[in-house]
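About this split. The held-out portion is used to measure sequence recovery: a designer receives only the structure tokens and must propose an amino acid at every position. Recovery is the fraction of positions where the proposal matches the reference. Here is one held-out target exactly as it appears in the evaluation file.
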């Protein structure tokens, strides 16, 4: 087993899709200040970040609504979603629960 802690853009072409599990916690595209990444790009550019993952076994740590918005158009509907909920407003919690029902359908 190999574990890489790297920018996927630098190694993804070297990985075997059938034998690789990718776990990623991508930037959330909300304007956080990073040294090497602009965290507020267009929806199209943000969606394009996920295209290289097509065909890989993938775990994405992200808000479920954003997975539906950005990852599903590229990767398709997930077969499984796991969600943890911390202090949210009622509207956010209901939105997350409804979005979670989308997974695996």
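Reference sequence for scoring:
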């Amino acid at each position: 087993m190999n574990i890489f802690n790297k920018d996927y853009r630098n190694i993804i072409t070297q990985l075997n899709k059938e034998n690789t599990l990718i776990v990623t916690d991508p930037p959330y595209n909300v304007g956080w200040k990073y040294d090497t990444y602009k965290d507020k790009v267009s929806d199209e550019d943000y969606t394009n970040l996920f295209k290289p993952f097509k065909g890989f076994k993938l775990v994405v740590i992200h808000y479920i609504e954003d997975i539906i918005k950005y990852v599903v158009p590229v990767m398709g509907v997930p077969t499984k979603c796991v969600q943890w909920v911390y202090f949210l407003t009622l509207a956010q919690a209901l939105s997350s629960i409804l979005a979670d029902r989308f997974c695996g359908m």
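Annotator remark: Helices lie at 43-48, 64-75, 90-100.
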